[in-house]
Write a structure and sequence with these properties.
Layout (H helix, E strand, L loop, with lengths): L3 E6 L5 E3 L5 H9 L3 E5 L12 E2 L3 H7 L5 E6 L4 E6 L4 E6 L1 H10 L3 E4 L1
Parallel strand pairs: 1-3, 4-7, 5-8
Antiparallel strand pairs: 1-2, 5-6, 6-7
């Protein structure tokens, strides 16, 4: 009869025994006949961070250097700029008359929505 040793994979990629090894288990380990089952890593789903609202236009323009794109959503009295960086989404709300000046200063692709 072959004993089953259950291992848990830790985030450091090391394994630890979930139950104590008995004499027969140790013997099978030495002989190489033990069967190993790995219980996977934690099943916590990845949750991206919430968008961050920026109020300073200079900071927003500085972040545009590392951004993939900036989406521009226009309404009657407000323009929302959404800046997508590799790790975070940043938003900026500006008045319609100031929006074009801010958009000209951005250093990434502009997408009108």
């Amino acid at each position: 009869m072959i004993s089953i040793l259950i291992l848990e994979l830790i985030t450091t990629n090391t394994a630890r025994l979930l139950r104590p090894a008995f004499a027969s288990d140790r013997k099978q380990l030495v002989e190489g006949t033990a069967q190993w089952f790995i219980v996977g890593r934690s099943q916590i789903p990845y949750c991206p961070p919430m968008p961050a609202e920026i109020t300073n236009t200079d900071e927003f323009v500085g972040l545009s250097e590392t951004a993939h794109e900036c989406r521009v959503k226009r309404s009657k009295d407000l323009v929302k700029l959404k800046l997508r960086t590799p790790s975070q989404l940043y938003t900026l709300k500006v008045k319609v008359d100031r929006a074009d000046d801010v958009i000209k200063r951005l250093k990434c692709e502009i997408v009108e929505v």
